[in-house]
Design brief:
Number of helices: 7
CATH class: Alpha Beta
Radius of gyration: 18 Å
Bound molecules: zinc ion
Structural class: alpha/beta
Order of helices and strands: HEHEHEHEHEEHHE
């Protein structure tokens, strides 16, 4: 029997009975629990550092999830360290400390190898991790932050991260957990107008019509750069990103699903 028969449940309309309607001020007072779900150590820094800093400043409890250890066939290793996995996870923990996260969970899959079976397993792991962390009756509302389902750069691991986060979100919602939205970090057309075919297929950034929320954390520009550069082994990417975008690296764009 196909597994599709086991998951007949569908999301029917906006049934948010389990989510208390609170004002922004009440939510800020109570704090949210945010799960940032990404594929590689450094995705959180490049795509969402400004937003994560703002959330922690506003009292949110932040949990970072990284699916892989950032070590695979195509991983950069400019210092030829003998254990790149260990180095990248250490860098990721340093970045997490700078952001002010409460917990970091690495699932330790191999970078570049994620597939459909992993996607199903990862989804179940995310659901179980949320259940282990938050009570179903919690007054605190839960949000997810992940990446555009087009994979941003087109990296398959990014696509698995985004789709696993979304699938876990909808399953938790159907079970009555107080999950409120998923923000999928995306590129903006104004910054990345063209298709890039130099490695995987990077589609153009999203148009203003497609972007639901933009967080401007340029007042945190120096800290955002520090968080990006905490991933020292990936410093050429950080330099390229910062040189291209300037202080716009502290502006994050999101597609929002609820
Ligand atoms: Zn990545």
């Amino acid at each position: 029997m196909s597994r599709s028969h086991e998951f007949r449940a569908v999301i029917e309309g906006d049934d948010d009975k389990n989510v208390k309607k609170l004002t922004k001020e009440q939510l800020r007072y109570m704090g949210k629990i945010i799960f940032g779900i990404f594929a590689h150590p450094d995705d959180e820094a490049f795509l969402t550092a400004g937003t994560l800093l703002q959330e922690v400043n506003d009292g949110s409890e932040l949990h970072l999830v990284c699916l892989t250890d950032g070590c695979g066939k195509h991983s950069m290793n400019p210092d030829n360290v003998s254990d790149l996995s260990e180095t990248r996870l250490e860098e990721w923990h340093n970045a997490g400390k700078l952001i002010g996260v409460k917990n970091q969970h690495c699932f330790k899959y191999v970078d570049g190898n994620l597939n459909n079976d992993d996607h199903i397993e990862i989804t179940e792991r995310i659901v179980n991790m949320v259940k282990d962390t938050v009570d179903k009756d919690s007054d605190k509302q839960i949000e997810f932050i992940s990446m555009d389902t087009n994979g941003i750069t087109g990296h398959i691991d990014h696509i698995v991260a985004a789709r696993s986060a979304l699938l876990a979100y909808y399953r938790l919602k159907m079970e009555g957990f107080p999950v409120t939205r998923v923000r999928l970090a995306c590129l903006a057309e104004e910054d990345f107008a063209d298709i890039n075919t130099s490695w995987t297929l990077r589609e153009p950034g999203r148009s203003s019509d497609e972007i639901d929320e933009t967080v401007d954390a340029r007042d945190q520009y120096d800290r955002v750069c520090e968080i990006m550069r905490a991933h020292h082994s990936q410093r050429s990417d950080a330099d390229e990103w910062i040189n291209k975008l300037g202080d716009r690296v502290a502006i994050n764009h999101f597609i929002v699903r609820d």
